[in-house]
From TrEMBL:
Its cofactor is Zn(2+). SUPFAM superfamilies: Homocysteine S-methyltransferase. This is Homocysteine S-methyltransferase 3-like. One of its GO terms (molecular function) is S-adenosylmethionine-homocysteine S-methyltransferase activity. It holds the Pfam family S-methyl_trans. PANTHER family: HOMOCYSTEINE S-METHYLTRANSFERASE 3 (PTHR46015:SF10), ZGC:172121 (PTHR46015). Keywords: Metal-binding, Methyltransferase, Transferase, Zinc. GO terms for biological process: methionine biosynthetic process; methylation; S-methylmethionine cycle. Zn(2+) binds at residues 250, 317-318. Residues 11-332 form the Hcy-binding domain. It comes from Abrus precatorius (Indian licorice). InterPro entries: BHMT-like (IPR017226), HCY_dom (IPR003726), HCY_dom_sf (IPR036589), Hcy_S-methyltransferase (IPR051486).
């Protein structure tokens, strides 16, 4: 889609307006791949399926489209040239796999639209879902995701990692995802302001015109996991011309309302939220464990409150499912009908 001469700043606002004032992002990806039989015990995580099981990647995209998603995020979160090379995959093949992540998502969108046109099932006859606008967001995971040591959940890369280190690491990957024609770039699970600064500088230096969003992972209502303030991080995103939405992902639902309030103080750009299920990731054991306190698996009832606080794009992250996304889509549809 690209910008096609439009002002970058209006890209996401216009899209959300076309969706009716709210837009639905998809949900957890790795969890769904595993549910369909994929073994993701690998440093490449969900990106492993780009090599071994592209049909499962397409299937998960379709599951989320069937559930009502307006934005599907590619399986490239953990896909990096450096990560592929560490697995013995040649650079050229790594570039092909990165492009493939976008191509598979685009195929899924075309299959879905074709089903809608043919009135494939009773579900597709529901006017809420037919031929709605759908964007492909190319996922760019943080440097910590490449390290595969859970450091994207603490945001401490050590003193040796600078803005320049991060720009050099991400540069080629971003250019490949842009060149293959993603509708937007989703910079996800950003754990510190250092990486946000690197992304903003990189977008400017490379003259990238594809819209982007910055989504941070946070440890409470005011701070990203590194301890940097979400206000400062959102301000960096706000100052970047290519950034069309700012928000949080892979963050406990109980912090979302406060984070939205903090973000809206820093930017007037659309705010997106796609929290995890409320569980905590333990890097040493590669497991998600239940957090203390109330169960938070079902955050769908809070969507209306989060919208009132200033958010307009809603989805789920780790451990959420197509059922979560279907619940969000139905809750939003109910809100629109109440207007």
């Amino acid at each position: 889609m690209g910008l096609e001469g439009k002002e970058t700043s209006s890209f996401m606002k216009d899209f959300v307006d076309k969706c009716g004032g709210y837009a639905v992002i998809d949900g957890g990806f790795a969890t769904e791949l595993e549910r369909h039989g994929a073994d993701l015990n690998d440093p490449l995580w969900s990106a492993k399926c780009l090599i071994s099981s592209p049909h499962l990647v397409r299937r998960v995209h379709l599951d989320y489209l069937d559930a009502g998603a307006n934005i599907i995020i590619t399986a490239s979160y953990q896909a990096t040239i450096q990560g592929f090379e560490a697995k013995g995959i040649a650079r050229e093949e790594g570039e092909i796999l990165l492009r493939k992540s976008v191509e598979i998502a685009r195929e899924a969108r075309e299959i879905y639209y074709d089903r809608c046109t043919k009135d494939f099932s009773d579900f597709m006859r529901d006017e809420r879902y037919r031929r709605r606008p759908i964007l492909i967001a190319a996922s760019v995971g943080s440097y910590g995701a490449y390290l595969a040591d859970g450091s994207e959940y603490i945001g401490d890369y050590g003193d040796a990692v600078t803005v320049q280190t991060l720009k050099d690491f991400h540069r080629e990957r971003i250019k490949i995802l842009v060149d293959v024609g993603a509708d937007l770039i989703a910079f996800e699970t950003i754990p510190n302001k250092l990486e946000a600064k690197a992304y903003a500088e990189l977008l400017a230096e490379e003259g990238i015109e594809t819209p982007a969003w910055f989504s941070f992972t946070c440890k409470d209502e005011t701070k990203v996991v590194s301890g940097d303030s979400i206000f400062e991080c959102a301000s960096i995103a706000d100052s970047c011309r290519q950034v069309v939405a700012v928000g949080v992902n892979c963050t406990a639902p109980r912090f979302i309302h406060g984070l939205i309030s903090s973000i809206t103080k820093a930017t007037s750009k659309p705010v997106l939220v796609y929290p995890n299920s409320g569980e905590t990731y333990i890097a040493e054991s590669n497991q998600w464990v239940k957090s203390s306190g109330i169960a938070e698996n079902d955050f769908v009832p809070y969507i209306g409150n989060w919208h009132d606080a200033g958010a307009s794009l809603f989805g789920g992250c780790c451990r959420t499912t197509p059922n979560t996304i279907r619940g969000i889509a139905e809750a939003i549809c109910g809100k629109l009908q109440d207007k």
